[in-house]
Structures are given as structure tokens and as C-alpha cells.
Fold this sequence. Notes:
By secondary structure, this protein is of the alpha+beta class. The chain is 52% helix and 14% strand. The chain is built from 11 helices and 9 strands.
Amino acid sequence: MIRDPESFNLLIAAIERLVRERLIPAEQDVADTDLIPPAIVDEMRRMGLFGLTIPEEYGGLGLTMEEEVLAAIALCRAAPAFRSLVGTNNGIGSLGLVFDGTPAQKAKYLPRLATGELIGSFALTEPGSGSDAGSLTTSARREGDIYVLNGAKRYITNAPQAGIYTVMARSDPRSKDASGVTAFIVERGSAGLSVGTPDRKMGQRGAHTADVIFDNVRVPAANVIGGVEGMGFKTAMKVLDKARIHIAAVSVGAATRILDEALGYATEREQFGEPIAGFQLVQAMLADSQAELYAARSMTLDAARRRDDGEPVTMEAACCKLYASEMVGRVADRAVQIHGGAGYMQASAVERFYRDVRLFRLYEGTSQIQQLVIARQMLKRWTTAGTS
């Protein structure tokens, strides 16, 4: 769903110009320093990139899912760290509020998320609870008009920069599944909240994750998302459906850049008196990469359009995330192979992307979790169709 093609094309052109003129030239500096330059962060704020998907009434651009996919593809031709910085504000760090927040909660936080004044973060994963999100142990004990939170969250994206955290905690200690989980908005300055040392990761320098620890953190009952206990897991699942389509788009954008790097190298690098792009085995790697990239882009846009049309897309979102995240890994591997020894050197963009994109197969649900989601949705639809 492209609402105003002329205005949207101007936005995409501006993102492409930013990527070409500012972000790609800064990639090595970000990799070396583990920091996105403040001037680039300010530029991204001025462009409205922190509020791409936040509703217009709260100061964002309110992009549809299809528009968001195309914007993500354009932005993710640069190193993933740049997208990661704005990604939580447009995705998991704000969607709980957008979907289920009360009017007061939306009015308080969404305008500041849209401008980038606040960085949002989504705190679901724990040291002992990853794919099985329903088994989380962070507790939320009610005492009058406040809840007292205790526990720890792990691998939380943008935790070191975040001003607010969407926190999933167990408000019903008797429950043993997701039914006792409630979603809270917790502000960074809350007494007892602390953030661990940023994690040292395989890739994605400049994109930070860390533990978030809650030690008797007192949270007003007014900060329960939607004002209703026990709805946290449902909120999380709504967030993840949309986020999985987004990560598929991120994978498509990264694969597009990686394939461009491989094509450029293959047409310039000569062996045996001719460019290696003339060799059929190199052409086969390029062709396979292009075919898979085209398939991933097509299915991601299809899922986005279905979501914009109001269709349930849990299965389609999982299909996109599974295929696209696996696809970009294969494209990155072929690009390193095409570069030969040069592709193994840290001066090479494809070496960096090879490490960066490995994460896409893990977060927002591993590839194996996507397979489970797809199979369960298939069986559910088959059963429903058979009894109707």
C-alpha cells in the first residue's frame, strides 16, 4: 500500500542519498570505533528516520507495511548498525505502545520516540528464556498502585542508549505459561534499573546490546501497556509478526548491497587474462544469488501487502523471515567466495557483512522457531478449513 507515490518516492530518494553519501563512507569508521558518529545520528533524526512507522498524529510518518519494507531495503544497503539504531523506535521499541497502549501512554511517549529524543527498547529475552518466551521469570509484584519488578533481560538491542524499555514480566506468579505475562513501560531513570556492559559480538559493530537488570524497580500501574494484566505475550506476538517482515526486508537490503559488491569485484578482478565474471562457475554464484534475492524481495512485499489489507500474516511473516535471513547468509558466503582471499580480509565490505548478517537468522525468532510457527499455522489452517 503506497499512499502517495510522489511523496514516498522523495523519501526513498532521500534515504538512498543518505546511504550513498553519508552512511557507506562512514562504515569503516563505525566498525573501528563501535560508534555511529553523532553528526550522522542528528542527520537521521532531522530526516525523520526514527519515526518512520509511528502514526502521524504522534509526529511520525506512519508508513504502511509495504512502505516500511521498501524504506528498510533502501536503508539497509548500508551497514546494519545504522538501521539498528532507528529500528527499535520504528519496531519492537514502539509497537507495543502503538498496538495496545492507552491514549495517555501513546501521547506521553510516541512523539518523543518519533523525533529520536527517546530511544525505545524491547526487553523480552532472559538468560534462561529465549525462544520459549512464555517461560520468562522476571517478576512483577503488585503493591497498590505500583508494581515491583525483579529479574534480568539479555541481549537487549539498544539497551545502552534506551530511554524507555518495553518489559515483559510475570505478574501472576501462579501461572506457568504466557497467560501470566504483562507488558510494562519502564523508564531508564527508574531506581534499581541498571544496564550491563555492552556485549562483544561477532559483528554489527556500532549496534549495541546489553543486559538490563531490575532490582526492586517500582513501576506505576499506569505504565502497564493497555492498562490490562496478562496481555503481555499477546502484545509481544503482535510486535513479532510485524518485526519479522521488517527483518526480511532488512535481509533483502543487505543482500542487495552484498551482491553489488560481488558484481563489482567480479567485473574488475582479472585472472587468466579476463575478468572472473566471464567464468561460468562465478556466473552461477551470481545467478543463484540474484534468483534468491528476487524471491525474498517478492515474498516480503507480498506479505507486507497482505498485512496492509488486514489479513492475518503470522505464517507469511515467519516464511519471509526464515527464507530472507537464510538467503542473505548464502549470498554473503558466495560473495566472500567470489572475492577469494580479498573477501577474507577485514578491509573488505563483504567480510564485514558476512559477520553482520549472521545475526538475522537468530533474532526475532531463530530459523528453527520460524519453521515451528509455519508448521503450526499450516496445521491450524488445515484443521479450520476441514471443519468449516
